[in-house]
């Protein structure tokens, strides 16, 4: 499959500067192919920016970065029309959102008004400036981060915006061997400087189209819906997942099947991806909204659903 080969090429390139993050990369790459966005909840210094830069370089795309702060304005993200006294006309000065991969660093430090300026762009792939709607480059991926430790001076991300993120995840701690390899890799040089493109944005768009044709058996569709219904009926949750979340789980399962070298989805895809896709879309009855707690609830619900057994390729 074209998508599998593309995934392996980009993964091999990413491994040159990102060590021990294969699973993280597979989830982010699946989000790209499913047309979604990623929210990373992790501490500073875990390689989020480096990973985003490496992916952008590998696909020969552009990358933008926004450091979210309380005084950040929507125009700082989208851009603004600037008046030129030289020719007495307004000229559009595009913001950093006009890129292929946008790293929104510490998104929860900006006000809700500024956070909401991303909504249209994330959902519609467009940006409206002074009533003029402009298309964003393709592919377009937002990798947003939030620091789980420092909550002073932060604004919780509204549920409407959380639902726009296809996946929420954390970059787990590395093992000792991987961390030693990082020290060896960065001891004398920065490998990022040697990263060269291994594909083009056009290749990514072709892979996105291929993912749309990945076969989903009716039993898999029923399995996803059963999970959704179980979240709505669970006494552990105040709010279950919406039909949009079910669609998101199906689409990212298609992408994950494609990078795994299959042209059909299996139940293991759904079970593996469920906490990453659904965990941030629920509200627990206990009131504890940590990522660990929400993912644990989703895993418990998924374990209680009967796994269908069929020939998934037919």
Automatic annotation (TrEMBL):
Transmembrane stretches in the record are none
Molecular function GO terms recorded: ATP binding; ATP hydrolysis activity
Give the Gene3D superfamilies listed for this entry: Magnesium chelatase subunit I, C-Terminal domain, P-loop containing nucleotide triphosphate hydrolases
Task: Domain (AAA+ ATPase): give its ranges.
Answer: 34-175
Q: What is this protein called?
A: MoxR-like ATPase
Q: Which organism is it from?
A: Eubacterium ruminantium
Organism classification: Bacteria, Bacillati, Bacillota, Clostridia, Eubacteriales
């Amino acid at each position: 499959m074209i998508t599998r080969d593309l995934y392996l090429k980009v993964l091999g390139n990413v491994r040159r500067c990102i060590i021990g993050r294969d699973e993280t990369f597979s989830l982010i790459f699946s989000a790209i192919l499913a047309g979604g966005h990623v929210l990373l909840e992790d501490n500073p210094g875990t390689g989020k920016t480096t990973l985003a830069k490496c992916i952008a370089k590998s696909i020969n795309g552009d990358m933008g970065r926004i450091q979210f702060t309380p005084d950040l304005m929507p125009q700082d993200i989208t851009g603004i029309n600037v008046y030129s006294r030289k020719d007495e006309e307004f000229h559009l000065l595009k913001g950093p959102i006009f890129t292929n991969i946008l790293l929104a660093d510490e998104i929860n430090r900006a006000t809700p008004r500024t956070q909401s300026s991303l909504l249209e762009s994330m959902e519609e792939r467009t940006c409206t400036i002074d009533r003029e709607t402009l298309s964003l480059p393709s592919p377009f991926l937002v990798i947003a981060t939030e620091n789980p430790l420092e909550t002073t001076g932060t604004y919780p991300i509204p549920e409407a915006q959380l639902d726009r993120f296809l996946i929420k995840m954390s970059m787990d701690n590395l093992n000792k061997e991987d961390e030693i390899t990082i020290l060896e890799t960065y001891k004398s040089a920065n490998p990022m400087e040697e990263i060269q493109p291994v594909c083009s944005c056009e290749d990514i768009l072709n892979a996105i189209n291929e993912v749309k044709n990945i076969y989903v058996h009716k039993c898999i569709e029923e399995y996803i819906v059963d999970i959704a219904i179980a979240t709505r009926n669970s006494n552990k949750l105040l709010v279950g997942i919406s039909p949009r979340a079910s669609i998101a789980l199906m689409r990212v399962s298609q992408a994950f099947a494609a990078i795994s070298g299959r042209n059909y989805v299996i139940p293991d895809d759904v079970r593996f991806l469920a906490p990453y896709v659904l965990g941030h879309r629920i509200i627990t009855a206990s009131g504890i909204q940590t990522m660990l707690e929400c993912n644990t609830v989703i895993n418990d619900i998924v374990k209680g659903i009967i796994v269908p057994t069929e020939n998934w390729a037919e």
